[in-house]
Amino acid sequence: MGNISGQMKEQQVMQWYELYYKDIYRFIFYMLGDRECCEDFVHDTFLRAYMAFDRFEHRSNIKTWLFSIAKHIVMDEIRRRKRRKVLSLFSSEHDFASPFNVEEYIENKETIEFMLEAIQKLKPDYRLVITLKKIEECSTKEIAEILGWSETKIRKTLSRGLTTLKKMNAMEGGGHFEQTF
Q1: What is the mean pLDDT of residues 61-76?
Q2: Are 19 and 46 in contact (CB under 8 A)?
């Protein structure tokens, strides 16, 4: 019996991997700002999902559950990085090959580069909420589920984070967020 459930578990997690790989990759990418470790953290997310499979209660949606696992991995990494280095997405020495191309999702390279750098400068709470809401297009209810916060806290944090981003945008000469935010 244990063998069958293990095999079923593996098939299920592989199916989730195919369905949600891009979402999890993009989330981690925006949270950490460099491609180098994205792949590893995506794999860690699905590995943890596999390990915690038996504890998954179908009260929450698979995607929000996977995001909450990825959130823990990302927050651990942010804590580990004493100094945050912002690596430019387009500098040749950091242009790691990836099966996922962020540019497909946002047309303007300048906007991606600016947003990525700007988001990296935000405190982690703002970064989480803005990435989940604006990049991943999660609902406020889903974000509340992923972070374990109230919807009111999500709305306040989002509002403050966006205000901070807009101030950065104004200082940079503006024009970066018209289409995106």
Answers
A1: 94
A2: no
Q: What is the pLDDT of residue 168?
A: 85
Among 152, 151, 181, CA closest to 165? 181
CA-closest candidate to residue 127, choices 81, 172, 65: 81
Q: Of 8-17, 29-38, 95-104, 135-144, which range is least confident?
A: 95-104
DSSP line for 99-163: S--GGGTSS-HHHHHHHHHHHHHS-HHHHHHHIIIIIS---HHHHHHHHT--HHHHHHHHHHHHH
**Hey, what are 72's tokens?**
């823990």
According to DSSP, residue 89 is labeled T
Question: Tokens 């916060």 appear where?
Answer: 149
Is residue 96 very low, low, confident or very high in pLDDT (cuts 50, 70, 90)? very low
Give the model's pLDDT for residue 128: 94
DSSP 92: G
DSSP 95: -
